[in-house]
Amino acid sequence: MQEIIGQVGTLLLGSLPTLILFILLVLAYQILVQGPLSKTLRERRARTTGAVEEAGKAIAAAEARTAEYANKLRQARAEVFRIREQRLKEWAQQRDSALEAARNAAAVRVLEARVGLDNEAGVARKTLLASADQLAEQVVRAVMPATAGGSR
Fold first, then answer.
1. What is the pTM of this model?
2. Phi, psi of 151 (to 5 degrees)
């Protein structure tokens, strides 16, 4: 057993430089590789998270702008329709007033024409009545001499 313990001691003593080099190598890896790599990964994660947060903010701002533009567009359309309806009402009023004026003018013309026709008819009646007596005399003279045997 002494012999095994001696061999183990010799092995341990021979492996001591390798053990020390291994520990130094692990420490060097921690200092030279693992530390900077972890730091870089943390920065990358922070930048990525920050970029995602900024993208979310930009998307929210774009959605707000879109909603604002949609609202302005809706208001503009409503204003256009309101103006259109107002113009249609104005045009309808203008048309109605023009039609009323035309109707009134036509009624005045009809009334004037009726009065003129009545006047002409009255003048024609007077003329006919005046000439009716003369015609009756002429007819009587034309008929009487032929029946009475008179001369013409």
1. 0.43
2. -90, 160
